[in-house]
Amino acid sequence: MGPFKLPSDSVAGPPMLSTQDKTRIDDTRIASVRPLMTPALLEERLPASPAHLALVERSRQDISNVLQGQDDRLVMVVGPCSIHDHDQAIAYAKLLKAEADKHAKDLQIVMRVYFEKPRTTVGWKGYINDPHLDGSFAMNQGLEMARKLLLDIIDLGLPVATEFLDLLSPQYISDLVTWGAIGARTTESQSHRQLASGLSCPVGFKNGTDGGVKVAADAVVASKAPHAFMGMTKMGQAAIFETRGNQDVHIILRGGKVPNYSVADVDAACKALEASGIAPQVMVDVSHANSSKQHSKQIEVAHDVAAQVAGGDRRIMGLMIESHLQEGRQDQKPGQPLQHGVSITDACISFAQTVPVLQALAQAVQQRRSRA
Ligand SMILES: O=C[C@H](O)[C@H](O)COP(=O)(O)O
Ligand SMILES: C=C(OP(=O)(O)O)C(=O)O
């Protein structure tokens, strides 16, 4: 046997068979393929202005400073579980902007603008995947609506946070994102860790849905390192990306089989981080399994975490709150109008309930500062 040769090295090899009819064995479960615009085309239509770029750059740096211990504020990721309506999101953003200004000395507030929903089994997958909420999967419109909303929120002077779930969608919107999350269902995914290693924004990794913190610590280690992987350029071409690694990464405690926001849980998480050679710092998600999915419990959890902060715990660098214009959640029912300002995914606290929580957290930061 001669030395191994790649097919592309063969001068006189077997005839190439790429024109053979393979319909019996290839794409047999693909129902349809529709065109998708390129990220470059979307950016051409909806470019970021110098003012947008300045806000994104400044707010990313603010969060980086918190992570590097140079800013003692709490990073607050606050907003709806999911976006399903542009105008309602803008109404929320205007209210949140007033709170962001009021607490700017103590809280770095970033609005949750989540377009992609990871589902436990099946369900609506978000504003990009199905922007008309009707199973038409108009993703070109979804991308355009998502990018327009981000620009409009940034125009109000508010930075945005989102979850990166799809591996191609970041090319369309990530230039406008100040902070990104990798969710509990994807923290263990190598592809998402690689993505995070190349993202330009700070990124938080949720602990696993079972409560496992080690997977999030491993994700932090992995995403700090450089990687090489396959992706798509802004021009829509397949490409090999080589990343530099992301130093602005941290874990998020979101609970699992049981909540994990107590002093003992924060201690245990920080020990796991230190064992992996990572700085002991956590964001606490007061929703999801930390609120046992009961939205009003978020208030109690946030006050508990505020007490830890007020007691001087510098390891808590931020919180996440699921909050909408109105409290609760609603199911989408065919032919029935949706209630205004109510979540169609996880239940949220109302904006009115959010205001005193932010106030309490700002006070907690002041108390922590005065102890230092
Ligand atoms: O935050 C949203 C949900 O908790 C997550 O997407 C899972 O939702 P599901 O269990 O309703 O599918
Ligand atoms: C899906 C979310 O959270 P988790 O990944 O923790 O379930 C979310 O924050 O919207």
Automatic annotation (TrEMBL):
Tell me which InterPro entries the record gives: Aldolase_TIM, DAHP1/KDSA, DAHP_synth_1
Q: Which reaction does it catalyse?
A: D-erythrose 4-phosphate + phosphoenolpyruvate + H2O = 7-phospho-2-dehydro-3-deoxy-D-arabino-heptonate + phosphate
Pathway as given in its UniProt record:
Metabolic intermediate biosynthesis; chorismate biosynthesis; chorismate from D-erythrose 4-phosphate and phosphoenolpyruvate: step 1/7
- EC number(s) on file: 2.5.1.54
Instruction: Give the enzyme class.
Output: transferase
Sorted alphabetically, the keyword list is: Amino-acid biosynthesis, Aromatic amino acid biosynthesis, Transferase
Cleaved signal peptide residues: none
Instruction: Kindly list the biological process annotations in GO that this record carries.
Output: amino acid biosynthetic process; aromatic amino acid family biosynthetic process; chorismate biosynthetic process
Give the protein family.
Belongs to the class-I DAHP synthase family.
| UniProt-recorded name of the protein | Phospho-2-dehydro-3-deoxyheptonate aldolase
Per the UniProt record, the source organism is: Limnohabitans parvus II-B4
Task: Supply the source organism's classification.
Answer: Bacteria, Pseudomonadati, Pseudomonadota, Betaproteobacteria, Burkholderiales
